[in-house]
Write a structure and sequence with these properties.
This protein is α/β, with parallel strands linked by helices. The chain has nine helices and ten strands.
């Protein structure tokens, strides 16, 4: 016996549509990777967040409060129980709300207008400052240049980089600049951060998609497109992301003057960076 012919036809059509959808995603990604400058990638990422309601009150991610791994990092004995916090890429204020509930004094920045308005509303009844600024503004501030973060004054007792925001710095040199800026502006402060890693990333695509990607990449580079780092990704709802290798993250942290005090790839990969002072290294998943 065979399944009804209409059902077999429907399954074939569905498989064909899946193949076509995968092909258009690969083509989209490779064109974006090849012909957008890093600054243009950032603008497209900001556009993705400006259209999303997931990160503001009532949104899917905001309603989670702290994720378990965030609570674990915040409760680490090496994080001060009180003091001033530099919150980077604050989003809609999900982390800000918890920091204020715990009694911290917060200086926060967020580049995208929609979540920025939400974060400012959360800060309204507190002494927290929330300004519109980017990681590039943070680097400029550390270099003594005037700009959006002129009011970012230390000392800070610790720094918190918003959920996976480090991965939105799609050039390793930009990551190093930001970590060095934090080391300059908050020299004694530990840094809580999260990011994407290659080993903890999404499952690899099928063989056909990999072959198409390789062929497109060669063709587009022959037409003058940029070379593409294997860690670069694009997600429709989150823009451009960079996935680190474990060794790369440890190396960049060390070059910026930090030791990795804790590292895990469970849940969302995350780490606690400690200003170099002979600190103990504690890690999960091979750290």
């Amino acid at each position: 016996m065979q399944a009804p012919s209409w059902s077999r036809l429907l399954c074939r059509v569905s498989r064909g549509l899946n193949v076509a959808d995968t092909a258009q995603q690969v083509l989209r990604d490779e064109l974006l990777f090849a012909f957008l400058e890093p600054s243009q990638r950032t603008l497209l990422t900001f556009d993705a967040y400006s259209r999303s309601s997931n990160y503001v009150p009532g949104g899917t991610y905001f309603s989670h409060g702290l994720f378990p791994w965030e609570g674990m990092l915040l409760d680490d004995s090496r994080i001060p129980r009180a003091g001033r916090v530099l919150l980077a890429a604050a989003g809609g204020g999900r982390e800000l709300q918890v920091l204020l509930e715990r009694g911290y004094e917060v200086f926060a920045f967020e580049p995208v207008s929609k979540p920025l308005r939400s974060a400012r509303e959360i800060a309204r009844a507190s002494s927290a400052r929330v300004v519109q600024a980017t990681y590039q503004d943070l680097v400029a501030r550390a270099r003594g240049e005037h700009g959006a973060l002129d009011d970012c004054q230390g000392p800070f007792d610790f720094c918190l980089l918003g959920w996976a925001s480090l991965s939105h710095l799609t050039e390793p040199g930009a990551v190093l600049d930001v970590l060095r800026a934090l080391r300059t502006l908050a020299p004694a402060a530990p840094v809580m951060t999260s990011f994407f890693t290659r080993s903890a990333g999404p499952p690899p695509t099928g063989g056909g998609a990999r072959k198409l990607r390789r062929a497109l990449r060669r063709a587009l580079q022959a037409l003058g497109g940029r070379s593409v780092d294997p860690g670069l990704q694009f997600l429709t709802g989150a823009g451009f992301l960079y996935s680190f290798s474990r060794d790369e993250l440890f190396r960049l942290s060390g070059e910026a003057g930090y030791e990795v005090g804790f590292f895990s790839e469970l849940d969302c990969p995350h780490a606690l960076l400690l200003p170099k002072s002979g600190a103990r290294i504690d890690s999960t998943n091979g750290g």
